[in-house]
Amino acid sequence: MRHVPSSLAIWVGLVTLYLVWGSTYLGIKIAVETIPPFLMGFMRFVAAGGVLAGVIAIANRSAIRRPARREVLDVSIVGGLLLVGGMGGVAWAEQTVPSGVAALLIALMPMWLAVFSRLFYGDRLPLSAIAGIGIGLAGVAILAWPVGGVGPLDPAGLAALLVSPICWSLGTLYAARRAVLPAPALFATGLEMIAGGLLLLVAAAVTGELTGFTFAQVSAASWIGLFYLFLVGSLLGFTVFAWLVQVAPLPRLSTYAYVNPVVAVILGWLIAGEPLTPRTLLAAVVIVVAVAMIVTARGRAMRRTNVVEELPAIAVDEPEMGIEVEGTGAVPGEAPLAVAEPAAVAEPSTAR
Description:
The protein is mostly helical and 352 residues long. The protein contains twelve helices and two strands; from the N terminus they run ααααααααααααββ. The radius of gyration is 19 Å and the shape is globular.
């Protein structure tokens, strides 16, 4: 018989996920203080992907096969969208934008996922999800609108944080619905990290990050931040999420989509001394409500579809760095990489 974890064990896993993926935004902020953002991403994801893919390959050596050409191409496409456009954009933006604000804007990934699912695949968009999208855009306006007496966000950083969840949602949809990826899912996740990390190195070279860079300039704090992102954010975060996908009720698992940004805002304020203004607090409330509405509405719609089609209530289709779980809605939390879309789970996160 399959062992069913206790409710306490599941909650321990959830709290771990809240703290781990919510804290990665602060980890990125510290790491990019003295490490160029794309280069930092290269070091983080190639190392994490190599360890993850290597461990999975050894544990499943009798079942692992060499990826086909199509699988290598799709792994690279997914890794590029999630890690270069997604996480690379976050790291680049956090050079000038507070980590808490970055987390709030990235938390809107379910909004973009809902929009693109409707545009490209004709997925039903419930009225409550449409309302959530409108509320989410209002939250962005609250954060970004230059108000007299309040320092505006850096326009370039803001633009990167608006493009980043778009890339992440496109990568998630491609991984879940079009890509041909190697099995098992965590092996594909590791390969996506490696491919995305190598593309981040190309981005670092193109943007001039490698010119004049020396490891001697990296501070001890940035090394600690990078190691934290590698060990805790990537390896521990994805492992816990992959376990929770199999054992936790999806409505409960989906809560990480709107808890993570709150954790990020609080940690940025407590540890990094980031300002916690009334405007930030108002935007946080508005965006969290929007994400909750979108994730809940999509989850209910998918469950109704599954019932009508007489399919199992939960279908785990482990595509990419991601695992799409019908009825969820995933956020990059850690964005995660990878463990992709719990559609109503709210969009890895890959990593955040």
